[in-house]
Amino acid sequence: MPAGDDPPEVELTIVTMTFDASDPAALVGILSKYVVVSRGHPGCRNIDLCGAVTTANRFLIIQKWDSPAAQQTHFDSSEMVEMARACNGLLSRPPTIDLYEGLSAHDLA
User: Fold this and answer.
1) What are the tens digits of pLDDT across the range 40-93?
2) Domains of the chain (ranges plus CATH)?
3) Separation CA 77–CA 53 (nearest Å)
4) Segment holding 107, helix H or strand E
5) Closest-CA residue to 91 (of 21, 17, 18)
6) Residue of 12, 33, 30, 14 whose CA lies nearest to 22
7) Which of 11, 46, 96, 108 has its C-alpha lying 20 to 30 A from 31's C-alpha?
8) From residue 14, how far is each of 24, 56, 108 by CA, in Å?
9) DSSP string computed for 18-57
10) What distance in Å separates the CA atoms of residue 109 and residue 98, rounded to the nearest whole number?
11) What is the pTM of this model?
Protein backbone atom coordinates (compact mmCIF):
# COMPACT_ATOMS: atom_id res chain seq x y z
CA MET A 1 0.00 0.00 0.00
CA PRO A 2 1.49 3.39 -0.94
CA ALA A 3 2.53 5.67 1.91
CA GLY A 4 -0.29 7.86 3.15
CA ASP A 5 -3.07 5.57 1.96
CA ASP A 6 -5.43 4.37 4.65
CA PRO A 7 -6.12 0.64 4.81
CA PRO A 8 -9.49 -0.37 3.39
CA GLU A 9 -12.38 -0.20 5.84
CA VAL A 10 -13.18 -3.67 7.11
CA GLU A 11 -16.78 -4.20 8.08
CA LEU A 12 -17.41 -7.25 10.23
CA THR A 13 -20.70 -8.47 11.65
CA ILE A 14 -20.63 -11.16 14.33
CA VAL A 15 -23.63 -13.20 15.45
CA THR A 16 -23.81 -15.52 18.44
CA MET A 17 -26.63 -18.00 18.90
CA THR A 18 -26.88 -19.93 22.18
CA PHE A 19 -28.97 -23.10 22.35
CA ASP A 20 -29.92 -25.02 25.53
CA ALA A 21 -30.84 -28.54 24.45
CA SER A 22 -33.45 -30.85 25.88
CA ASP A 23 -32.24 -33.46 23.33
CA PRO A 24 -28.51 -32.75 22.86
CA ALA A 25 -27.77 -35.60 20.45
CA ALA A 26 -30.52 -34.57 18.03
CA LEU A 27 -29.69 -30.88 18.33
CA VAL A 28 -25.98 -31.35 17.60
CA GLY A 29 -26.82 -33.11 14.34
CA ILE A 30 -29.08 -30.26 13.23
CA LEU A 31 -26.65 -27.51 14.24
CA SER A 32 -23.68 -29.32 12.65
CA LYS A 33 -25.48 -29.60 9.31
CA TYR A 34 -26.50 -25.92 9.50
CA VAL A 35 -22.91 -24.80 10.18
CA VAL A 36 -21.40 -26.81 7.33
CA VAL A 37 -24.01 -25.72 4.77
CA SER A 38 -23.98 -22.06 5.86
CA ARG A 39 -20.21 -21.64 5.59
CA GLY A 40 -20.63 -21.47 1.80
CA HIS A 41 -23.06 -18.54 1.88
CA PRO A 42 -21.95 -15.29 0.22
CA GLY A 43 -20.29 -12.97 2.72
CA CYS A 44 -19.60 -15.70 5.30
CA ARG A 45 -16.16 -15.45 6.83
CA ASN A 46 -16.63 -18.32 9.27
CA ILE A 47 -19.16 -20.20 11.38
CA ASP A 48 -18.20 -22.37 14.33
CA LEU A 49 -20.20 -24.67 16.61
CA CYS A 50 -19.02 -24.93 20.22
CA GLY A 51 -20.17 -26.94 23.22
CA ALA A 52 -20.18 -25.29 26.63
CA VAL A 53 -17.80 -26.69 29.21
CA THR A 54 -19.48 -25.07 32.22
CA THR A 55 -23.17 -25.54 31.31
CA ALA A 56 -24.42 -28.98 30.34
CA ASN A 57 -26.29 -29.27 27.03
CA ARG A 58 -25.51 -25.69 25.95
CA PHE A 59 -24.23 -25.03 22.43
CA LEU A 60 -22.98 -21.84 20.82
CA ILE A 61 -22.76 -20.91 17.16
CA ILE A 62 -20.42 -18.02 16.33
CA GLN A 63 -20.80 -16.46 12.89
CA LYS A 64 -18.66 -13.82 11.18
CA TRP A 65 -20.02 -11.98 8.14
CA ASP A 66 -18.53 -9.42 5.76
CA SER A 67 -21.37 -6.97 6.41
CA PRO A 68 -24.74 -6.51 8.11
CA ALA A 69 -26.38 -7.02 4.70
CA ALA A 70 -24.70 -10.42 4.21
CA GLN A 71 -25.74 -11.46 7.71
CA GLN A 72 -29.35 -10.38 7.17
CA THR A 73 -29.53 -12.16 3.83
CA HIS A 74 -28.34 -15.33 5.53
CA PHE A 75 -30.89 -14.99 8.36
CA ASP A 76 -33.61 -14.90 5.69
CA SER A 77 -32.17 -17.98 3.92
CA SER A 78 -33.83 -21.36 3.61
CA GLU A 79 -30.96 -22.95 5.60
CA MET A 80 -31.64 -20.69 8.58
CA VAL A 81 -35.39 -21.32 8.42
CA GLU A 82 -34.85 -25.09 8.09
CA MET A 83 -32.51 -25.13 11.11
CA ALA A 84 -34.95 -23.08 13.22
CA ARG A 85 -37.85 -25.39 12.36
CA ALA A 86 -35.78 -28.51 13.03
CA CYS A 87 -34.97 -27.24 16.54
CA ASN A 88 -38.66 -27.37 17.46
CA GLY A 89 -39.06 -29.63 20.50
CA LEU A 90 -35.29 -30.02 21.04
CA LEU A 91 -34.65 -26.92 23.17
CA SER A 92 -35.31 -26.31 26.86
CA ARG A 93 -35.79 -22.59 26.14
CA PRO A 94 -35.73 -20.27 23.11
CA PRO A 95 -32.25 -19.59 21.72
CA THR A 96 -30.46 -16.39 22.62
CA ILE A 97 -29.23 -14.44 19.59
CA ASP A 98 -26.80 -11.51 19.83
CA LEU A 99 -25.41 -9.25 17.12
CA TYR A 100 -21.99 -7.59 17.38
CA GLU A 101 -19.84 -5.40 15.20
CA GLY A 102 -16.15 -6.16 14.98
CA LEU A 103 -13.72 -3.73 16.56
CA SER A 104 -10.01 -3.78 16.05
CA ALA A 105 -7.28 -2.30 18.21
CA HIS A 106 -6.89 0.31 15.45
CA ASP A 107 -10.54 1.35 15.95
CA LEU A 108 -9.97 1.89 19.66
CA ALA A 109 -6.92 4.15 19.29
Assistant:
1) 999 999 999 999 999 999 999 999 999 999 999 999 999 999 999 999 999 999
2) 13-103 (3.30.70.100)
3) 30
4) helix 105-108
5) 21
6) 30
7) 11
8) 25, 24, 18
9) EEEBSSHHHHHHHHHHHHHHHTTSTTEEEEEEEE-SSSTT
10) 25
11) 0.85
